[in-house]
Amino acid sequence: MNKAFRKYLTEAEVQLIEETKPASLAELDEDALGELHNRVRRASSKYRKLHRRQASAQVRSDRGRGKAAAKNPRSAVKAEVFEDALARVSRSLSKAAKASAAELKAERLAAAQGGSTGPGRAATMGQGTGSGRTPAKKRSPAAKKKNASTLAAGARRQAKRDAR
Protein backbone atom coordinates (compact mmCIF):
# COMPACT_ATOMS: atom_id res chain seq x y z
CA MET A 1 0.00 0.00 0.00
CA ASN A 2 1.28 3.43 -0.93
CA LYS A 3 2.14 5.57 2.11
CA ALA A 4 0.28 8.51 0.57
CA PHE A 5 -2.93 6.47 0.75
CA ARG A 6 -2.40 5.59 4.39
CA LYS A 7 -3.52 9.04 5.56
CA TYR A 8 -7.00 8.38 4.17
CA LEU A 9 -7.51 5.10 6.07
CA THR A 10 -8.56 4.45 9.65
CA GLU A 11 -6.50 2.14 11.85
CA ALA A 12 -8.99 -0.72 11.39
CA GLU A 13 -8.83 -0.29 7.62
CA VAL A 14 -5.02 -0.28 7.67
CA GLN A 15 -5.10 -3.46 9.71
CA LEU A 16 -7.45 -5.09 7.20
CA ILE A 17 -5.18 -4.07 4.32
CA GLU A 18 -2.15 -5.46 6.21
CA GLU A 19 -3.93 -8.83 6.41
CA THR A 20 -4.02 -8.92 2.62
CA LYS A 21 -0.24 -8.70 2.16
CA PRO A 22 1.28 -11.78 0.49
CA ALA A 23 3.17 -12.88 3.62
CA SER A 24 -0.03 -12.79 5.68
CA LEU A 25 -2.07 -14.53 2.99
CA ALA A 26 0.43 -17.40 2.76
CA GLU A 27 -0.29 -18.34 6.39
CA LEU A 28 -4.06 -18.66 5.92
CA ASP A 29 -6.02 -21.77 4.97
CA GLU A 30 -8.94 -21.82 2.53
CA ASP A 31 -11.63 -21.12 5.15
CA ALA A 32 -9.73 -18.19 6.64
CA LEU A 33 -9.09 -16.81 3.15
CA GLY A 34 -12.82 -17.04 2.40
CA GLU A 35 -13.67 -15.12 5.57
CA LEU A 36 -11.04 -12.47 4.77
CA HIS A 37 -12.33 -12.26 1.19
CA ASN A 38 -15.83 -11.51 2.49
CA ARG A 39 -14.58 -8.77 4.80
CA VAL A 40 -12.48 -7.11 2.11
CA ARG A 41 -15.27 -7.43 -0.46
CA ARG A 42 -17.73 -5.71 1.90
CA ALA A 43 -15.29 -2.85 2.52
CA SER A 44 -14.54 -2.51 -1.18
CA SER A 45 -18.21 -2.46 -2.06
CA LYS A 46 -18.92 0.06 0.69
CA TYR A 47 -16.39 2.61 -0.53
CA ARG A 48 -17.10 2.05 -4.21
CA LYS A 49 -20.80 2.73 -3.61
CA LEU A 50 -20.04 5.69 -1.37
CA HIS A 51 -17.78 7.26 -3.99
CA ARG A 52 -20.37 6.79 -6.74
CA ARG A 53 -23.14 8.30 -4.59
CA GLN A 54 -20.99 11.28 -3.63
CA ALA A 55 -19.90 11.88 -7.21
CA SER A 56 -23.43 11.57 -8.61
CA ALA A 57 -24.72 14.04 -6.03
CA GLN A 58 -21.98 16.49 -7.01
CA VAL A 59 -22.48 16.23 -10.81
CA ARG A 60 -25.33 18.70 -11.00
CA SER A 61 -23.51 21.50 -9.19
CA ASP A 62 -20.18 20.87 -10.97
CA ARG A 63 -21.76 20.41 -14.40
CA GLY A 64 -19.52 17.46 -15.19
CA ARG A 65 -18.71 13.96 -14.00
CA GLY A 66 -14.95 14.42 -14.12
CA LYS A 67 -14.97 17.38 -11.77
CA ALA A 68 -17.48 15.75 -9.48
CA ALA A 69 -15.47 12.54 -9.14
CA ALA A 70 -12.32 14.48 -8.29
CA LYS A 71 -14.01 16.27 -5.38
CA ASN A 72 -14.11 13.13 -3.19
CA PRO A 73 -10.53 11.84 -3.11
CA ARG A 74 -10.92 10.07 0.23
CA SER A 75 -13.64 7.68 -0.90
CA ALA A 76 -11.96 7.23 -4.31
CA VAL A 77 -8.66 6.27 -2.69
CA LYS A 78 -10.35 3.91 -0.26
CA ALA A 79 -12.25 2.26 -3.09
CA GLU A 80 -9.04 1.79 -5.08
CA VAL A 81 -7.05 0.45 -2.12
CA PHE A 82 -9.73 -2.07 -1.23
CA GLU A 83 -10.14 -3.15 -4.87
CA ASP A 84 -6.41 -3.96 -5.00
CA ALA A 85 -6.64 -5.82 -1.70
CA LEU A 86 -9.67 -7.75 -2.94
CA ALA A 87 -7.78 -8.80 -6.05
CA ARG A 88 -4.89 -10.12 -3.94
CA VAL A 89 -7.19 -12.08 -1.64
CA SER A 90 -9.20 -13.44 -4.59
CA ARG A 91 -6.05 -14.75 -6.25
CA SER A 92 -4.90 -16.42 -3.04
CA LEU A 93 -8.32 -17.91 -2.42
CA SER A 94 -8.42 -19.24 -5.97
CA LYS A 95 -5.00 -20.88 -5.56
CA ALA A 96 -6.02 -22.42 -2.23
CA ALA A 97 -9.30 -23.72 -3.67
CA LYS A 98 -7.51 -25.28 -6.66
CA ALA A 99 -4.98 -26.94 -4.36
CA SER A 100 -7.74 -28.24 -2.13
CA ALA A 101 -9.68 -29.58 -5.11
CA ALA A 102 -6.58 -31.30 -6.49
CA GLU A 103 -5.91 -32.88 -3.11
CA LEU A 104 -9.49 -34.10 -2.82
CA LYS A 105 -9.38 -35.49 -6.35
CA ALA A 106 -6.16 -37.35 -5.58
CA GLU A 107 -7.72 -38.84 -2.44
CA ARG A 108 -10.80 -39.99 -4.37
CA LEU A 109 -8.71 -41.50 -7.16
CA ALA A 110 -6.55 -43.33 -4.64
CA ALA A 111 -9.66 -44.62 -2.89
CA ALA A 112 -11.19 -45.75 -6.18
CA GLN A 113 -8.01 -47.54 -7.26
CA GLY A 114 -7.66 -49.17 -3.88
CA GLY A 115 -11.20 -50.55 -4.07
CA SER A 116 -12.33 -48.88 -0.87
CA THR A 117 -15.42 -46.73 -0.75
CA GLY A 118 -15.00 -43.04 -0.20
CA PRO A 119 -17.33 -40.94 1.91
CA GLY A 120 -19.55 -40.06 -1.05
CA ARG A 121 -20.00 -43.62 -2.33
CA ALA A 122 -20.76 -45.40 0.95
CA ALA A 123 -24.27 -43.96 1.14
CA THR A 124 -25.21 -45.06 -2.38
CA MET A 125 -23.65 -48.50 -2.42
CA GLY A 126 -26.05 -51.43 -2.32
CA GLN A 127 -29.13 -49.56 -3.45
CA GLY A 128 -29.21 -51.16 -6.88
CA THR A 129 -29.40 -48.10 -9.12
CA GLY A 130 -25.78 -46.96 -9.13
CA SER A 131 -26.97 -43.37 -9.65
CA GLY A 132 -27.32 -42.60 -5.97
CA ARG A 133 -31.11 -42.27 -6.17
CA THR A 134 -33.56 -44.39 -4.25
CA PRO A 135 -35.38 -46.93 -6.49
CA ALA A 136 -39.01 -46.08 -7.25
CA LYS A 137 -40.41 -49.06 -5.33
CA LYS A 138 -38.67 -47.90 -2.11
CA ARG A 139 -39.94 -44.30 -2.30
CA SER A 140 -42.72 -43.08 -0.06
CA PRO A 141 -46.09 -42.20 -1.61
CA ALA A 142 -45.40 -38.51 -0.98
CA ALA A 143 -42.07 -38.71 -2.82
CA LYS A 144 -43.74 -40.53 -5.73
CA LYS A 145 -46.44 -37.85 -5.91
CA LYS A 146 -43.88 -35.05 -5.88
CA ASN A 147 -41.89 -36.73 -8.64
CA ALA A 148 -45.02 -37.25 -10.75
CA SER A 149 -46.03 -33.63 -10.20
CA THR A 150 -42.62 -32.41 -11.32
CA LEU A 151 -42.72 -34.57 -14.44
CA ALA A 152 -46.23 -33.41 -15.30
CA ALA A 153 -45.29 -29.75 -14.86
CA GLY A 154 -42.36 -30.23 -17.21
CA ALA A 155 -44.60 -31.93 -19.75
CA ARG A 156 -47.09 -29.06 -19.56
CA ARG A 157 -44.32 -26.50 -20.12
CA GLN A 158 -43.01 -28.43 -23.09
CA ALA A 159 -46.49 -28.79 -24.59
CA LYS A 160 -47.00 -25.05 -24.20
CA ARG A 161 -43.72 -24.37 -26.03
CA ASP A 162 -44.60 -26.83 -28.77
CA ALA A 163 -47.99 -25.19 -29.33
CA ARG A 164 -46.38 -21.84 -30.18
Beta-strand content estimate: under 5%
Encode the helix/strand succession as letters: HHHHHHH
Helix- and strand-based class? Answer: mainly alpha
Q: In DSSP terms, counting alpha (H) and pi (I) runs of 4 or more, how many helices?
A: 7
Q: How many strand units?
A: 0
Largest sheet: none
Number of structural units classed as domains = 2
Q: Whole-number average pLDDT?
A: 81
Give the % helix. Answer: over 70%
What's this entry about, in short?
This protein is mainly α and 164 residues long. It has helices spanning 3-6, 11-18, 22-26, 30-62, 65-70, 73-114, 141-162. Mean pLDDT is 81; it is low at 122-129.
Provide tags for this entry.
flat; mainly alpha; 164 residues; 73% helix; 0% strand; 2 domains
How would you describe the overall organization of this protein?
With 164 residues, this protein is mostly helical. It folds into two domains: 1-113; 135-164. The chain has seven helices and no strands. The chain has helices spanning 3-6, 11-18, 22-26, 30-62, 65-70, 73-114, 141-162. It starts with a helix and ends with a helix. Mean pLDDT is 81; it is low at 122-129.
Protein topology:
Elements: H1 3-6, H2 11-18, H3 22-26, H4 30-62, H5 65-70, H6 73-114, H7 141-162
Helix pairs in contact: 4-6
